[in-house]
Model the fold of this input.
Amino acid sequence: MSGSKSLALHAGAIALLFALNFVLPEYHHGVFARVMVLAVFAMGYNFLFGYAGLLSLGHAMFFAAGMYGAGLTMLHLGWSAPVGFVAGVASGAVLAVGIGLLALRTTGVAFMIVTMMFAQVIYLTILYFSQWTRGDEGLVLDRQLRSFDIGGLHVDLADPATRYMTALLLFSVVLLITLRFVSAPFGRVLVAIRENEMRTTMLGYDVFANKLGAVIVSGAICAAAGAAYALLFGHVGATFASVQYSILPLLWVLLGGAATTLGPIVGTLFMYYVVDITSGYTSAYLLIVGVALIGLVLFFPKGVLGTARDRWARWLP
Amino acid sequence: MSFGPHLFLASLEGLVTAAVLALTALGLSLVFGVMRIVNVAHGEFFMLGAVIAWWVASLLGGHPAVGFLAALIISPLIVGAIAFAAERLVLRRLEYNPEATIVATIGLLYILQQLALSLYGADARPVEAPFNYRVLLPWFGYSGYKLAVIAASALLILATWLVLTRTRIGLVMRATQYDRETAQAFGIPVDRVYGGVFALGAMLAAVAAVLIVPIQQAHYLMGRDPLLLSFIVVIIGGLGSLRGTLIAALLIGLSDGIISVFFSPTLAKMIATLLVALVLVFRPTGLFGTAVK
Done:
């Protein structure tokens, strides 16, 4: 019963986003495409933070791994866009294996600091190898690089409608993957680890392996978002690897509701528009972000959908 | 210059970095040790210290020393008050839950940074050093002010150490650190101690910043590097270990100074960050982190 309800909800959300493609004005059409890609980033983050309860402050490195994995191979090796995307996701997954093996030896606050430091190393690495990455300036993938032929069909990712649909496709796939995972045994074990790690160990689960799995899935999803961002918007830059981009998905997830499948998109969409609208009046958008973070942890620790689940809809996944 | 003097100069520069870093990290370490929370906004308290120092010095005018000395007193007090208010209004209500406080201090970081940008602007501005005296060393003349910074920082650290180990306030703080509940049972107002420790930590960062503004101008983004470096120092030194914090600050400051002179600064930072992350991975208690449970 609740399964069909939640399936209907997710299908409805995807259908709504699909329909919006035809009615949104040009500017908001672009915003929604961007928000969907960033929401994928947030969903990847949520996978680790919300479900496994691991607070990372270094997820920008996975986003950047996807971004540079796609961008660098396409620019310097001449790989086509789909292959570049796969390369991006693979870079993120490989990085996640390494980072997971090291960082998961620590717990709690130490885990947070270690991930932040590894992310900082990646950020500095990007700046250091500026002859390939062009450092702060970043790389531009021009339109020609971003279009390709597949099965006799010409796809131009710079075209707004194609861009929107590609973002929606990625979003839907990741959403359904998350939905599937969290109801599967793997996701349940992660929640058990979040709630009581000792007890989960005692019950005979391999906590480390499950956490590592979570880091890898999370890293790969975030890398997919990064690669998609590079492909759809043609820009690859070191800013996306900075500490700020590790903090943003945390903010989006907290706002929408950690450990809810649709929370990330709700949070991302809301925050994107809050910043967008307020920056029309004032340039002080960091102030808004700061106040939002403090307000959230103080008064609204479960976020929009988390609160909704507690009060009205117990079946929300 | 040949290699020897070059190395000597690099070490001196490294010592100045180490002195300021030790003070900043000491503040973070105190908060980390006593309250068991990570203050991500620590670098912004450092930045505020510098920015307020510029403000005070430029308001006063007159001889540079007057403005500087006034800044050295007023700036930490204001920063301490801000930190105290933040602790009372936000952190206390979160009941010092580690994750929630991290998120809240990130919020605080953004708020302080934006306020500095809006009220102070994006320019980097200097505060004039209280005196301009060059000490003649065998190979080159060196800024007397920089040497004074090293001395001042050493004195302040000594003072902090005396307060921690020899006074009642220090005793209360250590008691709170070792066992919060027992301390409470013995009538120590743990709650107020926390507010004080948080303010004290921020004030140490602010003092460090006032000392550095004559050398390195005040800028609204200047809190980033001290934050990361302080994290590094606190972790290498071991949680809550004063001795460890000092040794680690010397280690990081000197190596940063020397590597930056002989190699690229970006590479130096990269290597240092990576090494520290690995220290934390393989030795989570740090080099001297046995004192605290």
Notes: The CA atoms of residues 238 and 289 of chain B lie 4 Å apart.
